User: Fold this.
Amino acid sequence: MKRYIKHAIIFSLSIATIALLSSCSERDNTIVLRGASQFDEDHSFNQTLRKFEELVHLYYGEPVRFEIYRNSELGLEKDYFAYMNQGLSVDFAIVSPSHMSTFSKAAPLMDMPFLFRDKDHWDKVLDGDALEPIADEVYEKADVKIIGYAGGGTRHLIVNKPVRNMAELKGLDIRVMGAPIQTRIFQAISAAPTVIAYNEIYNAIQTGVIEAAENEATGIEQMKFYEVGPEIALTQHAITVRPLCFSGKTLRRLPENLQAAILKAGKEAGAHGREVESKLDSELLAQMEADGKLRTHVFTERDTLLALADPVKQAFAAEVGASDVINRVDSVK
Assistant:
């Protein structure tokens, strides 16, 4: 309880400090834009936010001050989205689509397994307008504008034995995230999914409760999953999409030329972030394999995975009123 109170006090002081800075900035007429991140300066998200800052300065050409609060100083991504919705404390941040689901049931579709055929398809979709209906709904209902798309971590299976084809995948006991779409898709591809808390994965594989989990390279390294699941099946079942968001209430208060600079910079900063994260992700996985921590195995029947997952994707999209989005994504060549 004491620790909780301490954290609450620190968090309140941070918000109070921001409010004080805001009042000071209003007095000297300096426009201040505030970003937030759960991670440290070296993380790809922060590199994306810094690129956004650099590009806004380039395209706006007039004084504007950026303040980026890192290391969860202002809470977590779900908090950032709430602040942007309210037009308070946080003006821009990178947020997982799952945190938008309160306002848009279709938003989690952006992060759905097997949505993308491959990395090239993923990049083309995010560079185009296929996801625009979801972005429009988020802006309309949450008053948060998606101005770019970062992300780029490729998720694979972390297994305690080699899994290279459908025969070896069948019945695999695998941990999945709590979203129902995750369970439905992994059942469709013949695995046996179980929802287990993220911090229990290591022990669950170690004790034989499950045989596998799924994650990207950073998660594999940070949680040392390679110690209990050293056989990595390269299913490429998901490539992360992390929208760069901006508060609608803040955006509309800004000069029109700054609004234009923000929208242009957001799209380009998102593309920069995807390039950075994709590169870091592939390099990290290769480095762990070179260090003897894990072994990668090409999944030889990935086309079968895509075909099995497709009916589930279509059904989920229909449930959330986003069949047109799936069709737009699939039509990108």
Observations:
- The radius of gyration is 21 Å.
- The chain has a mean pLDDT of 92.
